[in-house]
Amino acid sequence: MNDFSATTSLMHGIQQLLRRNFVLTLTVGYFIVMSALLPAFASSRNLANLSSNFWPLLSLVIGQLLVMIVGGIDLSQSSIMALASVCGASLMCQSADPVVFAKAPLWNIVFSEQGGFLAGSVFAVSAAVAVMLTVGILVGFFNGFAVAYLKMPPFIVTLVSMMFFSGAAIYLTASENITHLPTSFTAIAQKRVLLPIPVWIVAASAIVVHIILQHTAFGKKLYAVGLNAKAALISGINVPMVTLTAFTLSGFFAALGSVIYSARLEGGRPTLGQDLLLDVIGAAVIGGISLFGGRGRVRDACAGALFFTLLANSLNLMNLSFFIVNIVKGGVILLAAAVDAWRVGKSGGMSKR
Amino acid sequence: MKRGKYLFFAVIVGFFLISGGSCGKKEKQLTICFSFQDLETEFWVGAHKAITEELKARGVRVIERNSSQDANRQLEQVRDAIAQQVDGIIIIPQDGQSANTIIGEANRAGIPIAVFNRPPADSSRNAIVVLADNKLIAEKAVDYMVEKAAASGRRYRPCIIVGDLGDPNSIARRDGFYAALAKRPQLFKPVVEVPSKWDAGTTLANFEAAIQANPDIDFVFTSSDFLYPQLRSVLEPLGKWTSDADPRHVILGGVDGDSFACRMMRERIIDATGVQDLFFEARSLMDELLRAIDNGEKQPKKWIVDPGFTLTLDNYAERAVDMWGCVLLHRGLISR
Fold it and tell me: CA-to-CA distance for A169 and A267, rounded, in angstroms?
């Protein structure tokens, strides 16, 4: 009887583990299978690649998580990345080619042949990063204001933002990449302080967001707004302010991702992140963050981003063609979303958090 | 619940604390990663074909990577190839700057890298670089166009379709164009510059606008032959897409040497094209990279320049067989 009881308890425990951590379990399983199939998959170099790809993506997924919890979606993250990238790079670049940039609107105003406005200053990198983050916050605020106070649909607002700010990034630099960035900036993506610097930046941000979501009144308000905005309003929650804050934070995290990607590519790119949106939303959906609001944790964002990173990397290591890789990625996102929806439905909606 | 948390932290922490060495064994067969930006133009299709066929003919296993014009994706793909311990890397980079970053990755990994047809922004990087002498090739093609203009005895309104100014090839071709015009400045009115960004849609829109604003344009140089269909879309309805025997003929020239230029020269609509010797470039790249791998060189550095040649209406009968676009057309590898 005792044995039976112990077995039942173990089975129940495993069921709970799978139910609550389905994607993470899937990720671990996938990692084990791929490590057996692909010799290079678990090599230290490839793990370093996975890490390098995972953290900036996670930053974007966390931003998307906050917006999705309140029942929104942020399609403008890629344009925020591009705009922040060129704004920051134009301020801190150490030189620029007049042949390339002569027709750029920022030329001779923000940057010139001698470099950016901040070039040579000891505060160049920190100030430029601050500007990049501010750009993200401002665009996020704009999105949030339109959604929360003008009552515009998030899909349309952020779609228009994506078009507008992508165009602005291209316009400001005449579509050229801004290079010759300070090494102290590119070091953000290339140097380590025990662990790679992006790990510290994004992990710290993730922990802060986790604490906000799980242990503060504001976190509870976010979920309440996402579950039922009317009920939240009647309960005395300032729904527009909560929504505005979620979109503003999404802009911040997109800009944070931009800092890491720009440092990694050693340049300000007006087309930065153009193809990343599917990866971000795909990772969020795989993680189990609800597109209907009210559900999602930082842990889900991590699991989704991790699985997506593993998937993309393993497909590359299988030497599949670009077209097949895209087809498989799309199929897996769809399958994961369907399985997760079935799992949630079967468990009677389970915990919203 | 707690078990879930432990599992989560174990995965995340374990994942990133590992660093350093590498594992796996090299296969005897050479493996080369070939990463290219896209296959959108005929030149890149031709280059892809020439390089992959040459590698396979030499018994090399090729890992192909299409970055779809995304510099970040190309960097990730090359890093993944490095993790597979490839013996060498060939890239057609998105731009000169991203070439620098990727070369740095390969150098750090000790894997020889070769860059095809688009030079890194920083020429001090350790890579095998094969590229055409774009300025000279463009200048010679425009020289012929200028002589043709001089023979007519009237002044022309020149127009240049400029590529992406972030691309050193594009800048060199523009320099070649102006160098040729500077030899006979009295023949020309002010130049009309049309930006293309190496994009067909952008070229069509901007060239249409340029023709509206300057209907007297009668001398057009395109920085790449792949943009000729857009020029034809604008000039044909105006009755200006004609052979050189027609008085309405616009003097036309370009750079690359693709199959469209080959066909249009056969019809005497295009006057000259500066030809890159695609097969020479692919063969030289391969020779140099395989030599470096054989010699165990981890960071070989060499620049190989393709001087190219000019195909004109005067030498078409003799030299067309040397132009890669005509060769591909003749072999039936490119659609007619």
Answer: 14
